Amino acid sequence: MNELNRSTSLFDEAKRFIPGGVNSPVRSFRSVGGVPPFIAKGAGSKLYDVDGNEYIDYVLSYGPLLLGHAHPVVTEAVQTAAANGTSFGAPTGAEVALAKLVCGLVPSMDMVRMVNSGTEATMSAIRLARAYTGRDCIVKFIGCYHGHSDALLVHAGSGATTFGVPDSPGVTKGTAETTLSVPFNDLPALEKVFAEKGSAIAGVIMEPTPGNMGLVLPKDGYLKAVRELTKKYGSLLIIDEVMSGFRSAQGGSQSLYGIDPDITCLGKVIGGGLPVAAYGGKQEIMSRVSPAGPMYQAGTLSGNPLAMAAGIAALTYMKDNNVCETLAKRNAELTDALKEAAGAAGIPVQVPRLGSMFTVFFSEKEVTDYEDATACDLNAFRAYFHSMLEQGIYLPPSQFETNFLSLAHSEEDIEKTVSAAKNAFKKAALAASSGC
Ligand code: KE4
User: Fold this and answer.
1) Is the CB of 317 under 6 A from ligand 1?
2) Taking burial as the number of CB atoms within 10 A of a residue's CB, which of 9, 23, 75, 295 is the most buried?
3) Using one digit for the tens of pLDDT, what is the confidence trace for 136-172?
4) Distance in angstroms (rounded) separating the CA atoms of residues 314 and 149
5) How far, in Å, are 10, 11, 20, 23, 168 from residue 15 at the CA level?
6) Given this model, what pLDDT does residue 160 score?
7) pTM of the prediction?
8) Is 73 exposed, middle or buried (0-12, 13-18, 19+ CB in 10 A)?
């Protein structure tokens, strides 16, 4: 691996003009240390940094690149669209085409509104739940991330009522107080909150298969029980599939677990790498959204023609080529081999997988919630991460992120990844602190 000299000087310059040198915190490598490689190019399963290093990429922009970097169907669609103009501030046929495509792929969505980020999608979804029910409170789950809107930058406060407290300066106490947080996979805790405040709960928002504490899978029956509870109290169920949409399965995690949500949030994959997200659901609920209804939500670049073109190209290719099933099989092969490699190195890991997503937790026990995730051995993770990077494998720089596969990841890539992991797990074993 070449020294990151150019990346280092770019990072120093970036910190002069951009907070922390990055436009999204996780990219700073703060939780693993070191200088983040500055990327010059992506192609297929590979990233190339400005210092001439090549990496097999398991970040894939944190999920969007289901087909890999610069897939021709996407780049050609964007180039064609760009030649006709980049934005109009007026309706286009491409928006209708992508809306129909998304609603066809996610049966719980009768209608959909395009926005520009997952944050916008979830922020709008909770506003819609409040507008539809006339109630104020929202329930979220500790360890689930839904973007950075104020109402969702909240964690559980102390005390029985689990009143929220701000997760960040700048979020007001008042905002936080109407967001209630409970542990994921803990049905009694959710039942208690509903027993206390059910009549005030507008909606429950959840990642059905959380990917923002690392990948955590719901216990048997848990998601259906959450759905029943929300129905019992007249609250809406908002399923945030910004990450899991078209990653866990073609119909999202809701299709895998048989959940029929009131509102679904999507993002990442539906933009093919360009800024697109969406929220949608039952016609009766979505008809409350302006200008059809009174709940206001808007966006200058919502439904942007280039982003629509990329999303249509990516989702059409996905649908026509059975991409999700192919990736699930490739993921099973990779993660089984990673587990075997860790066992041989004598380092305890958990490697949950779902569709084209997986996480390597440095933990002796199964990770079922945020408490388990934060008990993982971060020294071991850091050693693993840096050893993989030095061997040309680019992983998300945090134990609490999910890894992604793309259609471009070849058998050769898988073999190289497993071979690198054998060394990296040995490094992790040496660095491991206490068992966890
Ligand atoms: P954006 O606002 O970043 O487009 O989406 C927010 C969001 C909403 N819901 C879920 C389930 C998400 O995973 C995300 C964003 N995911 C992170 C990855 N942990 C994006 C990476 C980043 O913050 O740079």
Assistant:
1) no
2) 295
3) 999 999 999 999 999 999 886 555 445 677 888 899 9
4) 28
5) 9, 6, 5, 10, 21
6) 45
7) 0.97
8) middle
